[in-house]
Design brief:
heterodimer; B: mainly alpha; two-stranded antiparallel sheet
Chain lengths: 315, 291
Amino acid sequence: MRSSTFALICVLVAALVYAAARWFGNEYVFFAGYVVLQFIVLATAWNILGGYTGYVNFGSAAFFAVGAYSSIFFHKIFPLPIPVLIVIGGVFSGLIGLGMGYLTLRLRGAFFAIGTLALAVVLQTIITNWSYLGGARGAYVLRPAEIEFIGPYIQYLFLLMLALAVFALSVARGIERSQLGYGFATIRDDELAAEASGVPTLRLKLIATTISGGLMGMAGAPFPYYLGYVQPSSAFGLEYAVNAIAMPMIGGTTSWVGPLVGAIVLASLQQWATVTFSSELGVLLVGVLLVAFVILAPKGIVGLVQGWRRGKAGS
Amino acid sequence: MDIPYDLLVNALVAGLLLGAFYAAVTVGISISFGILDIVNIAHPGFIILGSYLAYIINARLGLDPILVSLLMLPAFYALGAVIYQVYYASFEKRGQDSLRGLAFFFGLLFVTEVALVLVFGVDYRYVQAPYIGPSQNIGFVDLPLRMLVPGVVALAMVAALQLFLTKTFIGRAIMGVAQDQLALQLMGASPTRIKRTAFAISIATCAVAGALLIIIQPVEPSVGREYIGRVFAICVLGGLGSIPGTLIGAMMLGILESFTSTFYGPSWAPAVSFGVLLLVLAFKPSGLFGR
């Protein structure tokens, strides 16, 4: 399937999702759906670096927060429409991703992962101490209740996130099928051998960290408008970092389908647990599932389904 | 800037005491990460678990937290052995210990933290002991017993581990695993068993470190996260797996943090350790005392 056909199918599916959500006619569907979509973007973004090149990023929350805080920054200076803010947030967090990419020059494997964690805490401390952005107290964003043509504001945010999810999935699938994707795979399998065979590993890694970081920032940019209030501990919340890792790991890291499946399953599960019990129980479930899956089903849900199909075909 | 002399000395002493405590927190990581190459990011989570156990028993039975931690050692040792067994069977044996092993420990860290939140909530907990509160004054230097007692216990533990690793047969076998696993097998020792013992010891140190932590400061479940940066910064600074290096790295970080909070404010302190970590990783990854 060509990339353009794939994007078209994604848009059609997205249109169906939006129509179904409107048909429900309940505001909650949009609130919950927004979160699920946001995690699809985050998980797909994480997988472009973590799944394709094998570099584990523990600092996803930082990229998300950079996107959110760049929106607050511009909201204070000069109010811009949210699609522009999404692009700006993507640029900022993409630049930080580029910086993170240079860490890979010296750091491999676990050291890189710990380095990303360090990066996240340093950024969080800077924002906590930056009083213009609200500091530790947090910042408020007043959003209009309605918007032209679409109606309630939450529907507008939902549509934006839906478009972003389509964009992220198309990018991920495009990378997979391109030369870039094969380059990433060589880095994952054996970086030294790839370097020796003339693969420009540094350039590829920089591309991967920039795209991955940029997409995470884009997912974070509308966040202040969704909640109306942002504080460092919520924007940098550990649950973003854990979910961004757990969703691809549980779905399957080898293709774009894994993060999508993982995000839909886990995010819906968390929404259900939050409504029925408490949000802590929801995130506890994610942690337990992550540990269980990496031990018992290292290839994720996608791997399980493939194994099950192959078993059926073989018997 | 005109810095008062007594403030400087006080910050230095506070930093040294803090550093001794940091050494106790890090020594377990130096064994698991430094010697065994197991990236146990969940280590701070187990430290917080140790703090909460010290808190419960202290609140119920009124036992001294340090005594409680010593009684807890066998339980933490067993926990460590179980975790290593799972880790070995699921990741090390299959040869895919890097990416999935990391995710495994990250998940464990998160699960311990959220489970503690579910049981105890996010309130700060503290313990009661006669040495919390009073302080000893030597001239103008202020020595709070709340820092002095944990510092002394921490130094004793680090010294005991160093003696164990260099003087006993098992200790030397643990050091040997880091250098040449095959050679160890040829000598008739099982690397898996040696590694399990070592990892169990590293988790056992969490019992003591946790009790010391809750003596020094009130604890809530997410406090552990701040320590991820500290333990790895110290471990890398000290050259991965060297116990004396760990002690020196811990002292350096303790002093640096104490100066930062004295002269710039405590809200900048968490960034210090991670900043040091980033700098060390970027410019001298083998640490100051690399092996």
